[in-house]
């Protein structure tokens, strides 16, 4: 039974009413990522009374999250974000049904998870996931609400919803992934803590508008906002032909995709190694570990390594003594670029690897094993 008192203030709105609230109560929304964007999305959808919310995230709370990921506090460090979010959101509104998926969205689980929901909200922070979600939402015909942040600027758009102008997708906006390291994430470039709150709130707004069919949403449009000067703009998204042999058009084609390779996160001749492989490799005496972060970046590696910032790698590669090389950075982006530079300079006789997910991934796995 609909709780009229809880939702009284929005039911009273002209153009909203009980019928819009019933649509929210019946809706099933999947949120990919419970981080900076996901936290406000989840809180506002829960408060608004969306009936069924799914949460996908494999990460744990870290201290560096807390200035922007407002569902969590200091006591939550080390805990799974999905489990903490579930506890907090249930306390907010027990009338909402939650399902948590403490895993990363991949080609192996995407169809099973996404097919259960009416709307997908992309609160991820990496290009492989964005292209993966765009493709599978297009194939399954699921609306996709996109959000992204960079330092002081944010973007919001609604994809895969048809209106009088047709239908657009993330690939219409960004047909090709950027080169590795070209667009740093907040691990490398930083972010003002309130920015994901602003963008996530707008993503939640677009979800509510889409479900209840009120207002003029960002369908086939991209909104940008700079919170330093409050300059905003809304652009029409072009819809060129997406016909391309590298784009999947069926579930079978989708499940054969390698989005890491598609987005340049994997490169031929360069091995992506896991934290456990990294720990084993660093025990060998014939291996050089190259940290391509800036010298002041934290945390430091607790093992012997060479510090050569990426911008200085070409001029200082002669410091390398061994033919087994592992390149590391904070999140894995700069290390892949560094590995590519060394591959071009040193040639095929050198065995070059990079730490996938960077020191962030290394520290996360180390914590889980304690």
From TrEMBL:
The UniProt keyword set, sorted, is: ATP-binding, Nucleotide-binding, Nucleotidyltransferase, Transferase
User: What organism is this sequence from?
Assistant: Chryseobacterium takakiae
Function statement: Catalyzes the adenylation by ATP of the carboxyl group of the C-terminal glycine of sulfur carrier protein MoaD.
Belongs to which family?
Belongs to the HesA/MoeB/ThiF family.
Ranges for the Rhodanese domain?
A: 283-367
UniProt subunit comment: Homodimer. Forms a stable heterotetrameric complex of 2 MoeB and 2 MoaD during adenylation of MoaD.
Q: Name one GO molecular function term.
A: ATP binding
| Signal peptide range in chain numbering | none
Annotated coiled-coil positions are none
This protein's record includes keyword Chloroplast: no
* Catalytic function, reaction form: [molybdopterin-synthase sulfur-carrier protein]-C-terminal Gly-Gly + ATP + H(+) = [molybdopterin-synthase sulfur-carrier protein]-C-terminal Gly-Gly-AMP + diphosphate
Query: Which GO cellular component terms, listed alphabetically, does the Swiss-Prot or TrEMBL entry include?
Result: cytosol
Q: What is this protein called?
A: Molybdopterin-synthase adenylyltransferase
């Amino acid at each position: 039974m609909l709780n009229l008192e809880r939702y009284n203030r929005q039911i009273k709105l002209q153009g909203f009413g009980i019928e819009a609230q019933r649509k929210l109560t019946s809706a099933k929304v999947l949120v990919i990522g419970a981080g900076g964007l996901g936290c406000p999305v989840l809180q506002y959808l829960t408060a608004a009374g969306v009936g069924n919310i799914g949460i996908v995230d494999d990460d744990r709370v870290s201290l560096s999250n807390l200035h922007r990921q407002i569902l969590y506090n200091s006591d939550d460090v080390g805990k799974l974000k999905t489990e903490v979010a579930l506890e907090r959101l249930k306390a907010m509104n027990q009338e909402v049904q939650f399902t948590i998926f403490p895993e990363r969205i991949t080609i192996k689980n995407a169809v099973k998870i996404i097919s259960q929901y009416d709307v997908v909200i992309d609160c991820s922070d990496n290009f492989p996931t964005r292209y993966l979600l765009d493709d599978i939402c297009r194939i399954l015909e699921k609306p996709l609400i996109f959000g992204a942040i960079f330092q002081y600027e944010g973007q919001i758009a609604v994809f895969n919803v048809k209106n009088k102008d047709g239908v657009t997708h993330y690939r219409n906006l960004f047909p090709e992934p950027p080169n590795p390291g070209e667009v740093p994430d907040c691990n490398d470039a930083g972010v003002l803590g309130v920015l994901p709150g602003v963008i996530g709130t707008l993503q939640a707004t677009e979800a509510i508008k889409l479900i209840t069919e009120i207002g003029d949403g960002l369908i086939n449009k991209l909104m940008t906002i700079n919170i330093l000067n409050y300059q905003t703009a809304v652009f029409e998204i072009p819809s060129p032909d997406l016909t391309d042999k590298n784009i999947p058009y069926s579930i079978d084609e989708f499940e054969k995709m390698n989005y890491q390779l598609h987005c340049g996160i994997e490169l031929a001749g360069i091995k992506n190694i896991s934290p456990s492989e990294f720990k084993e490799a660093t025990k060998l005496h014939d291996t050089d570990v190259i940290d391509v972060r800036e010298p002041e970046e934290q945390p430091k590696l607790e093992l012997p390594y060479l510090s050569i910032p990426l911008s200085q790698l070409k001029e200082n590669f002669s410091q390398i003594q061994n033919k087994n090389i592992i390149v590391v950075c904070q999140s894995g982006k700069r290390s892949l670029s560094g590995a590519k530079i060394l591959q071009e300079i040193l040639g095929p006789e050198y065995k070059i690897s990079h730490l996938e997910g960077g020191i962030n991934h290394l520290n996360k796995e180390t914590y889980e094993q304690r």
